[in-house]
Sequence to fold (659 residues):
Amino acid sequence: MAEVILEGVTKVFPGGVVAVKDMDLHIRDEEFIVLVGPSGCGKSTTLRMVAGLEEITAGTISIGGAVVNDVPPKNRDIAMVFQNYALYPHMTVYKNMAFALKLRRFPRAEIDKRVREAARILGIGELLDRKPKALSGGQRQRVAVGRAIVRAPKAFLFDEPLSNLDAKLRVEMRAELKRLHRTLQTTTIYVTHDQEEAMTLGDRIVVMKDAVVHQCGAPLEVYDAPANRFVAGFVGTPPMNFLHGRLAGDNGAVWFDEGTARIRLRSEQAGRLTAWVGREVVFGARPEAMSLAGEGRFAGEGNVLSVQVAVVEPLGEKMDLYAATPRHGHVVARVDARRDIQPGQSVALHLDMRKVHVFDPGDAGANLLRRGA
Amino acid sequence: MIEDVRTTSGRGARPTAEVVKHLFVLLVLSATFFPLYMMLNISTKTNRDFFRDPWVPRHVEASVVRDNYAQAWRTIGFSIPNTMFLCASTSGLKLVAAILAAYVFARFAFPLKGLLWAGVMVLMLMPGVANLVPLFTQLRDMGLLNTYAALVLTGAAAGQTFNLFILRSFIEDTPEELFEAAEVDGAGHLGKIWHVVVPMNGSIIATLACLSIVSVWNNFMLPLLIVRDPSRQVTAVALYRLANAYVREWGPTMAAYTIAAVPLVVMFLFTMRYFVRGVAAGSIKG
Fold:
C-alpha cells in the first residue's frame, strides 16, 4: 500500500511567510494526482515536504501508513524528478540511474538489470554510456525519470518536469508519462503550473492558490463544476469569461443583468439563487459554451449576448473571437470556423445555459450554482 | 569607386598596435623564462666556463653536464622523496579539511556562523612570519620538533583561510538540486561531498591542490627550524645548504635547482588543464 496522506499540513518559512496552510489531502494508492496553481501557491513546497526536503511546521504526512515527518528523504522510499533534471554531470547515464541503488548497496547484477529495464521502458538504451551534456532536453528528462523508476519506490514525485521542454516535446512526454504510470502503477504526485498538463495527466487535480487548496477533484469535475472564480478562471484555455452584473427576479424567473444584456437562468439554477436576487454577482461562461446565433447550437430564449468582435483567431475547425460588450471589454468565444466573421463586426452569441456559472463577487468567489455551495 | 579602406588604412594602422602587443608579450615571456634559461645554461658549465662567459652555452661537454648533475643529485637527491611525501600528505590533509569546513559554512545555518566566518577571515591578515616563534615554542612543548607531523599539521593549516574562502563560494554556487537529488537518492553529507562537491568543483580543487603543493615544495623557514636530522631535510633547505658551501660550484648548484624544479614542472604539465579551468571558473563564474 502506498497511500500518501497529508493532515493539517502547514509550512511557515522564517519571516512568517505561510507557504502551505492547513492542507488535508488523501492520495490513494496508485493514483496520479496533480498539484496545480500559479507560482507561489505552495504546490512545490507541498511536494518538497512529502519528499522530506522541507520541514513541516505543523500537521503530519504519512506514506504507506507510516508517519514520515521526521524521516529523512532517503528513508521515505520516494523518488523525485526535478524541474532541472538534477542529473550528475560527471556521471554517465548508466551511473546516474544506478547511483541510488549503488548507495543502497544493491548487488551489481540487480543494478544492471534494473537500469537496463528502465532504459528499455524509456527508450534510452543506446544512451547509457553518454554523459548528460551530450543529451537533448527530452533525453535528459527521460534519464531523470529513469533514475526514479529504478528505485521502484512507493511514490513518484515530479516537480514541474516538463517545464523546460519545448511545446511539442512537452506534449510527447506528457503522453509518455501517462503511459508510464499505467505500466508502473505507482502512486504519483505531480506538480505543474500548466493547467492543460494537469487536466490531461491527473486522475485528480488539486488546484492551489495562496497556500490553500481551492478544489480537489477529477479533471472534468473541476472543469465543469469549479468551486470558485479562481478555479474557474485558472482551469481551461482560453479562460472562462467573467461578466459582472446583478441578478434580477421577474415572475419567478431569475435573470442575470449584465447592464447591456439580460440572460435568463434555467429554472433549476434559479432555484439555487433566490437569496441572491437583487445582488451583485459574477456570471461565468466558457468560450466553448458560446455559439454564433445562426449556428443552431444553444439556440433558446433569453440566452443571447451581443458583442463586437475585435480579433478573430482561426484554429482550424474552430476559431476564437476576441470581443467586447459595451460594459465588458474582454469576451472570448470559441465558435465554428466556417462562419465568415470580420474584426469590427457585431455578432450575437448564444450561451449554453447548462454550462454557465454564477459566482459570489467577493474575494472568495464561491460558485453559487455548485452543489454544496 | 568605393575603396576598401582596410587595404589602404586599416592594415597600415593596425600593425603598430600588433607589434607593440607582441613586443610586450615577448618582454614578459623573456623575463619569465630568462632565469630558467640561465639555470639550465649554467648547469652545463664548469666554474671556469661560468666566470668566462655565464650568458651563452659554449662548448657544452657531456661529461661536464653528467658530473654536474651527478654531484647535484648526490647533494639534494635524498630530499626529493622527503619533499614529495610532505607535499602529498600536507596538501591532502589541507584540502580535506578545507572542503569539509567550506561545506559546513556553505550549507549549514548555525548560531554565530557570521562571527565565526569573520574570525576565520581576519586570520588572512596575519603575516605568517609573525607566528614563527610562538609556533616553534608550541611545537617544542608538544614534542613535535624534528618530526614530519609538525610540518604536515602546520602546512595543512597554513593558507586555509584562502582555501576556505574560495571553496565556500564555489560550493554555494553548486546547484542546490544536485544536493537534493543526492539526498533523495540516499547520500549523507559525506556522500554529497564525495559525489557532488568534489566532482562539480574538481577544477578549483585541483587548482588549490597545485598551489598548495608549490607552497609546500618551496617551504623553507619552518623546515629549517623544525627538522634537525639532515637526512630528513626538504629540498628548499638542501638547496640552501648548497649556497653555504665553502667554494661555490655554480654548475652543480644550478643543476641542483634544475633537479628541484623538475617535479613541479611535471606536476604542472599533468594538471595544467585543471589549473586553467579552475582559474577560468573563478573569473567567469557560472
